[in-house]
Automatic annotation (TrEMBL):
Name of the featured protein: MotA/TolQ/ExbB proton channel family protein
Signal peptide start and end residues: 1-22
A Pfam family recorded for this sequence: MotA_ExbB
InterPro entries (UniProt xref): ExbB/TolQ_transport, MotA_ExbB_proton_chnl
Source organism per UniProt: Algoriphagus formosus
Entry keyword set: Cell membrane, Membrane, Protein transport, Signal, Transmembrane, Transmembrane helix, Transport
Parts of the chain that traverse the membrane: 55-75, 151-177, 197-216
Localization annotation: Cell membrane; Membrane
GO cellular component, one term: plasma membrane
Domain of life from the UniProt record: Bacteria
């Protein structure tokens, strides 16, 4: 629930410039303003208006929501990162000094999916090493699902943004041909203006998809890194438990 509220708050903050665009948008641009060098914000605002807010707003919404989910995933994934070497050293020291219960205390006090997997494995230690391995594999799949949570929404917005852009382009082209039909003559300025406005939505959709794709690839790479750490650490934990069981006899 807290994450959902945070996402909506972040979306509201990012969406605020859209309302400013709608309120500030001039209907007539003076020659003096055009002559002056425009800032990046002014250029974006101008192109947003030229592309028709009716079609550009859904593309912008995809960007805002996609960024909100991506930022939440990036923060969560970075918080899930654990120094596995340090954790393994602590667990090994705890096993040598206090046994399984001491090792459980170490893993329970450590955040992250690796520590959670360790806790599940240590809880099944009394049932044998094979049960420990099965528990680690099963809970590892659960943790992997938690890490990948939300990626499907980023993927959806990556696919949806260009589609919305293409739809705006097609509708804009239809409008341009309707204008030609109504005028009864092909005017180069009329055709060029209509095509320019129509293509702006496609450009916007592609830009949104590219931005979200970068965040998506980062999240996937981070998840792969965490999964590799979990697998390597799990193998080390099993070896450690086998060693502890042999020396404990």
């Amino acid at each position: 629930m807290r994450k959902l509220i945070a996402l909506f708050m972040l979306a509201g903050i990012l969406f605020a410039p859209v309302f400013a665009i709608a309120q500030d948008s001039p209907t007539v641009v003076d020659d003096e303003i055009v002559a002056e060098e425009q800032s990046f914000h002014q250029v974006v605002k101008e192109k947003f208006i030229e592309g028709d807010p009716v079609f550009m707003t859904p593309v912008l919404v995809c960007l805002i929501l996609g960024l909100a989910v991506a930022l939440e995933r990036i923060i969560t994934l970075n918080l899930s990162t654990t120094n596995t070497k340090k954790l393994l050293a602590k667990v090994e020291d705890a096993l040598a000094s206090g046994g399984i219960e001491a090792a459980k205390d170490v893993t329970k006090s450590t955040k992250g999916p690796v520590a959670s997997i360790f806790t599940q494995g240590l809880m099944r230690y009394s049932e044998g090493i094979e049960m420990v391995e099965k528990s680690i594999i099963a809970y590892g799949s659960v943790e992997m699902g938690r890490l990948e949570k939300g990626l499907v929404w980023i993927s959806l917005f990556i696919s949806l943004a260009p589609m919305l852009g293409f739809m705006g382009t097609v509708i804009g082209m239809i409008g341009a041909f309707d204008s030609i039909e109504a005028a009864g003559d092909i005017s180069p300025s009329l055709v060029a203006g209509g095509i320019k406005i129509a293509l702006l939505t496609t450009v916007a959709g592609l830009i949104v998809a590219i931005i979200l794709q970068l965040f998506y690839n980062y999240c996937v790479a981070k998840i792969d890194s965490l999964v590799n750490d979990m697998e390597d650490a799990s193998i080390s934990l099993v070896d450690m438990l086998v060693k502890h069981k042999l020396t404990g006899k």
